[in-house]
Amino acid sequence: MSAPDEIRAVEIETPEVAAARAKLRRRRAIALGVALALFAITFYILTIVKMGPALFDRAI
Fold first, then answer.
1. 56: which DSSP letter?
2. Count of alpha carbons within 13 Å of 59, Cβ hemisphere only?
3. pLDDT tens digits, one per residue of 37-51
């Protein structure tokens, strides 16, 4: 039994292709980080807004 064509046909990645993939991966990671930060900030702001001004008038 022989290996499928996908396994036999292994292509060596050129430095240009490797650099392009790394750049794309970095962009994706930055975009996910920004999205996560915006999501966290949104929840933080909504929590403060929902508690209202009474949050700052309470005795500590």
1. G
2. 0
3. 999 999 999 988 888
Q: Report the range out of 9-18, 21-30, 48-57 with the highest average pLDDT.
A: 21-30
Query: Structure pTM?
Result: 0.62
Cβ neighbours for 21, distance < 8 A, ≥ 6 positions apart: 13
Among 38, 46, 43, which residue's Cα sits nearest to residue 55?
46
Calculate the dihedral angle through the C-alpha atoms of 11, 14, 18, 24, rounding to the nearest 10 degrees.
Answer: -90
pLDDT at 12 over 90: no
* Tokens describing residue 15: 């430095």
* Measured distance CA(58)–CA(56) in Å, rounded: 6
